[in-house]
Specification:
The chain is α+β, with helices and mostly antiparallel strands. It contains four helices and 14 strands. The protein has a seven-stranded antiparallel β-sheet. Strands 8-9-14-10-11-12-13 form a seven-stranded antiparallel β-sheet, covered by helices on one side. The protein starts with a strand and ends with a strand.
């Protein structure tokens, strides 16, 4: 079996990790490569696809999950063999291992490294954002109320929307009594934020991947309070 490991920063803990990891149907589409989990004959089926130079890697298999603090493990069993993604929550980091037991596994080193780095980064960021934002959300779907919101939390809000909708292109509209904002995300890239306060309207250019934006990117936005959030397609 061939394996590659990666370590990514992770500021939350086991409770945050497991709250996201138990829903692979939501989590897998947030990975920075093609990934999905669907149902077939009452079983979960995972599909992964890396289409990077010099050749693509695709895998499909029945998905099994195991949770044993501080470990999360996804085992995918397909006709070609096994593909395993395992995560361990540590002190300030998430350790990820991608392993393959399939033909030509010795040639998969770079692909397994990309799988480990990408899935680890996505799980870490989604777990952090869900842990921060979920307690502030009232309602579900494409319109909900967000309480005790402030501008710096916008990075978490955008990742929360990706997690809950699986959409990589969308517009988030937030409205309060005296101010509001519009955030555009195109193919996983946060393009710009237009926000209005008592002092006028401003536009904040971001141009960063959803997994890379942070609270600091939105710290200058003077927003605070309860907002009605609407999600629209782009």
């Amino acid at each position: 079996m061939e394996s590659k490991t990666a370590r990514v920063p992770f500021s939350a803990g086991w409770e945050a990790l497991i709250s996201v990891a138990v829903n692979p149907e939501e989590l897998f589409p947030t990975f920075p490569y093609r990934a999905e989990v669907t149902r077939r004959n009452e079983r979960s089926v995972a599909r992964l696809s890396l289409r990077r130079f010099p050749w693509k890697f695709e895998f499909e298999g029945f998905l099994e999950m195991a949770f044993n603090e501080p470990h999360v493990t996804y085992v995918m069993k397909g006709q070609r063999g096994l593909l395993i993604l395992s995560f361990m929550a540590g002190d300030g980091s998430l350790v990820v291992r991608a392993s393959a037991d399939i033909p030509w596994e010795k040639l998969l080193g770079k692909k397994l490294q990309l799988l480990a780095e990408g899935s680890g980064k996505a799980l870490a960021r989604m777990a952090e954002s869900h842990y921060v934002l979920a307690p502030l959300v009232f309602g579900s779907g494409e319109e909900f109320i967000l309480r005790r919101f402030e501008g710096s939390l916008l990075a978490h809000l955008l990742r929360y929307v990706l997690l809950k909708t699986s959409k990589r292109s969308f517009r988030v509209i937030g409205k309060a009594k005296e101010d509001g904002f519009i955030a555009d995300v195109t193919d996983g890239i946060v393009e710009k934020i237009e926000y209005e306060t008592f002092s006028g309207t401003s536009i904040l250019e971001i141009k960063k991947d959803l997994l890379d934006v942070s609270e600091e990117d939105f710290s200058e936005m003077d927003l605070n309070g309860e907002y009605i959030i609407k999600i629209e397609a782009l």
